[in-house]
Amino acid sequence: MKVKTKKRAYKATNLPPGTMKYKGKKQSLKTVIDIINYSNQAFTKIDCNDVEDGFNFEGNQQVTWININGLNNLKDIEKLGTHYNLHPLTLEDIVNTSQRPKFEEFQNYFFVVFKMLYFDDKDILQYEHLSMVVGPDYVLTFQEADGDVFDNLRNRIEVAKGRIRSQGADYLMYAILDAIVDNYFTVIEAVGDKIEDLESNIFETQTNNSTTPNQIQDLKQEVLKIRRSILPLREVINRLEKSDNTIINVKSQSYIRDLYDHIIQVNESIDLYREMVWGLMDMYMTIISNKMNEVMKVLTIIATIFIPLTFIAGIYGMNFTNMPELQSENGYFILLGAMFVLFIIMLIYFRNKKWL
Predict the structure, then answer these.
(1) Are strands 63-69 and 138-143 parallel, antiparallel or unpaired?
(2) Contact, 36 vs 44, CB < 8 A?
(3) Which residues belong to CATH 1.20.58.340 in the chain?
(4) Per-residue pLDDT tens for 144-172?
(5) CATH superfamily name and code, 292-352
(6) What SS3 state is found at 139?
(7) Global pTM?
(8) pLDDT for 91-107, tens place per residue?
(9) Yes or no: domain 32-286 corresponds to CATH 3.40.30.10
């Protein structure tokens, strides 16, 4: 049966550089903006729908974190980019969800793109494009939709836990990246559990169904997608660590260096799990082949046992009248006894050879 494949149309958009075009699938009806403005002594949090509410915190000797949810609302993002003097190419990369993780330095800010991985309320792994613009006293983060891994970070800022309220925008940038990388460990741990469960199921004798190869293939695709999202961040953090931009305080370099060690550990783990997943299919095929070999061995032994018995039955089934055994009164029972003894001898022989 010939499988019909759906034809796909591949077209190059060839838009002018700096043209904003959202390519994701998470559509938001409106832009949701979370604004956190803080210092060592003050804290302000605002939830609003107007990007212009984020224009009033400059020059107040505080750090401002503006988080925007909804990349499909291009006018609001463009308005925010105009106010903070963001390069058109930066705005293009903010809404381009297919952009790989990257790090770029500009005159008055630097720009970081990375992927945020987390499990939603239904325990489904979500992949989200996340961009961050870091200035001297502000941090802008752009998300596709609601839901992130920053709740603990927001709480630390609000209750002044740790050193974050006494640090600048560069430390806030580190804290955001640290929250992203720490959540990578959670994702990697979940993937490891899936691999171990599937490996256990493959070794069970009862597990021999047609869905196992599909499960292995789905897991392989998931691991490759996670690796594609995480691997480039190693280069991003490496460049960030070696940057001599005045926005990054010297004290923050040690934290970024520690973050680089964490992302190396994550990449090593995902490479290990990738090798394990690729070995699952070989393991499954080996187990299926071994089971088939066991079946073939039993059938071969049965056939081998019956070959001499069939040979004897064939000889005495020939239509000759001068065969002396045919005239014997007990010839039939003697022949059956001889065949039975031969059968027992062959079973003992096969057992001694450990073929049974």
Answers:
(1) parallel
(2) yes
(3) 292-352
(4) 877 788 889 999 999 988 888 889 899 99
(5) Magnesium transport protein CorA, transmembrane region (1.20.58.340)
(6) strand
(7) 0.78
(8) 999 988 888 899 999 88
(9) no
